[in-house]
UniProtKB/TrEMBL annotation:
UniProt entry tagged with the keyword tRNA-binding: no
Subunit text: Homodimer.
Catalyzed chemical reaction(s): (6R)-5,10-methylene-5,6,7,8-tetrahydrofolate + NADP(+) = (6R)-5,10-methenyltetrahydrofolate + NADPH; (6R)-5,10-methenyltetrahydrofolate + H2O = (6R)-10-formyltetrahydrofolate + H(+)
UniProt keyword annotation of Oxidoreductase present: yes
Organism, as annotated: Qingshengfaniella alkalisoli
EC number: 1.5.1.5, 3.5.4.9
Protein name in the entry: Bifunctional protein FolD
Amino acid sequence: MTAKVIDGKAFAAGLREKIGGEVARLREEHGVVPGLAVVLVGEDPASQVYVRSKGRQTVEAGMESFEYRLPAETDQETLVTLIRDLNSDPKVHGILVQLPLPDQLDEALVIAEISPDKDVDGFHVSNVGLLNTGQASMVPCTPLGSLMLLKDQLGDLSGLEAVVVGRSNIVGKPMVQLLLGENCTVTLAHSRTKDLPAVTRRADILVAAVGRPEMIKGDWIKPGATVIDVGINRIPTTDGKSRLVGDVDYAAAAAVAGAITPVPGGVGPMTIACLLANTLTACCRQND
Ligand code: GUN
């Protein structure tokens, strides 16, 4: 079998176009322009690339982008003061603080300062609690984008066996909640799971979010399974350059799976598209 390639790049482009249409309608009919504030502390190169691309796509969708770049040595009080200012700014509907933060900053305390209504990452404990109890909330962007691709591919997910590998707050845990909400039978596996290949081989839906390059091998996958690879890992190549790979050994997995997301061009583009969707949702709720 050769797996169908799930084109996240095309799906995300379609989603951004729909969002752009809604943004234009909001502006014309209500005079409201959704605004997204992104805060970057320090100079982590990968974070800089993400933040630049978030800013560009926000503007392309017709929204306002506010970027705050703070030095790596920024203290907690300065960051908290900025977040409080953004919380009370009516032009800002969504706030995203790029993670990871430098060591002197307390991530949990920083996230707790973001108004839950403006928490477009869905990381605030009150949004986590709402998601975990099946109530309307801001849903973290990468799991939300992954679920959209799964539903587009498979339709009804009821009763399917889903295995999520990786227990992060950003992806693994919220992904479990979303799949439960779709009536899947869900297993959350991780780096300490015993006989991980036996667990992943049960999966009709396999979501890989461990951050280890090409860890999941072809023979860990059930024939015909749908594989969502959330990993984005840069590995060196023999010519001294580097390339991006996922958490799944793509060539081997594509020979076994029914459908698979590539890296790049799979889940990655969905994350920013869902961030724009969450910003639009936040703006509509704040102007209701
Ligand atoms: N760093 C890596 N992924 C994310 C994300 O989805 N949101 C934020 N704020 N930081 C990240």
